Amino acid sequence: QVQLVESGGGSVQAGGSLRLSCAASEYTYRSHCMGWFRQAPGKEREGVAAIDRDGSKSYAESVKGRFTISKDNAKNSLYLQMTSLKPEDTSMYYCAADGRSIATISAPYAQYEYNYWGQGTQVTVSS
């Protein structure tokens, strides 16, 4: 059964931190790539970070140095540690699985390379 459940979103002030979690079913967790995406109202869904089975990672330029993607194999869980948050980081954040490659996380078509999605968790950053 495919299942991705995000948690950890919330409201913070600029400069603050949040940690998003994504609990995955074992089948989903074993997929080649997992990633985090975000979508603000009126905007396209964009890739934020991706990680493959070997632990290699890739980030969008806008979050490099501020966000860290990681996973815990014992818990079938994916994480996104977000620091130095900015108002422009405000979005619905989605966990995704069964992606093709971490290298395309910043491509405009990246979302179409992932087959499984969570329901999303809202992150709001105030100035």
In words, what does this structure look like?
By secondary structure, the protein is mainly beta. It has 1 helix and 11 strands; from the N terminus they run βββαββββββββ. The strands form 2 sheets. Strands 2, 4, 5, 6, 9, 10 and 11 form a 7-stranded mixed beta sheet that branches. It has a 4-stranded antiparallel beta sheet with strand order 1-3-8-7. It is globular and about 40 Å long.
Strand fraction: over 45%
The overall pLDDT average reads 95
The termini sit apart by 41 Å
Identify the overall geometry: globular
What ranges have pLDDT less than 50 throughout 5 or more consecutive residues?
Answer: none
Total beta strands = 11
The major sheet is characterized as: 7 strands, mixed
Which structural class is indicated by helix and strand composition?
mainly beta
In helices, the fraction of residues equals under 10%
| Helix count from the secondary structure assignment | 1
* Order of secondary-structure elements: EEEHEEEEEEEE
Supply Rg: 13 Å
